[in-house]
Amino acid sequence: MDQAGMRATQLWQELIAYNATMAEQLDLNLLRVFDALLQDGSVTSASERLHLSIPATSRALGRLRRAMNDPILVRAGRGMAPTPFAVRTAPRVRALLEEASALISADRELEVGKLQRTFTIRISDGIAATLVTAAVEATAAVAPGVALRFVTEGNESIEALRDGSIDLDIGAGDDTAPDIRTAALYRERLVGIVRADSPLGRHRRPTLVQLSHYPHVSASRRGRARGPLDDALEAEGLQRQVAAVVPTQAVAALLVASSEYVGLVPQRLAEQYGSTLGLRWFPIPADLPEVEVRLLWHARLDADPAQRWLRDTIRDALGGAAHALE
């Protein structure tokens, strides 16, 4: 072998040795420490979560800093704040840990009563108002160590499912991709709501003409005043006055309860909270599109027994048999 070949071989061996060292530095246990530190933002809290001593957790943070060439956590006032690198890396680490957990536990029987885990679920406010209570009660009844962390819609991108930022997505979006699994939960329709003493509330089925005589409140996170009802009114030569646009359906219901406005909300929301808020609801005399509420998760979580249990629990809590969608 000539000198150039020997040098190339040496460099290759050094690269293999370096990669092996990095792999050893970033083993699963160290990644678990990283995940706990990013969740808690504190060495003390992370040590309690991991059942480690504070010095051991502190040493692990030191190893992480050397292996990742980043401070990971920096002092911020009386606490610690993650670096931008740590924030970007955290979802990937969480996804790796979940995948490893699924691989290890795929063939094991899940002991739900002993499960200690936090699941993050992204959900819209209109759906959350009618689903969260049932989901929390159903999980707490058999798995007291499980916490459900609900986060509101902000960015509906499926990347949050891919990188592990969220475990499940519950909503009415139509995003599909080969690596995203989805199951139907139920179909929902919008109904009209008014204050119980509103003159419009005396009509069991108000007409479109009657609806157009009252000011409306529109619920839109994006600030949109126009929706399917406007198309139906326009087809009849009518239009409505949208007097207010609010970001959530819950706020719309509260506003309607204290005004002469008409609102549109999911029927489940109207049925569950209408009487409590002093509202009356009625069907809209137009062919408004129904909304299909779906459950979405990433394909890598198919084999995770805890994830399967959570999905089944949420579907059962709604009292409907969900069917898988391709």
Task: Please provide a written account of the structure.
- There is one protein chain.
- This protein has helices at 3-25, 28-40, 43-50, 54-68, 84-105, 125-142, 159-162, 208-212, 228-235, 249-257, 267-277, 305-317, and strands at residues 73-76, 79-82, 117-123, 146-152, 168-171, 180-188, 190-195, 215-219, 241-246, 262-266, 279-283, 291-298, 324-325.
- The chain has 326 residues and is α/β, with parallel strands linked by helices.
- It is 46% helix and 22% strand.
- Residues 14-24 and 320-326 have low confidence and may be disordered.
- It starts with a helix and ends with a strand.
- Helix 2 packs across helix 5 and helix 6 crosses helix 12.
- The protein has 12 helices and 13 strands.
- The longest helix has 23 residues, at 3-25.
- The strands form 3 sheets. It has a 6-stranded mixed sheet with strand order 4-3-5-12-6-13, covered by helices on one side. Strands 9-8-10-7-11 form a 5-stranded mixed sheet, with helices on one face.
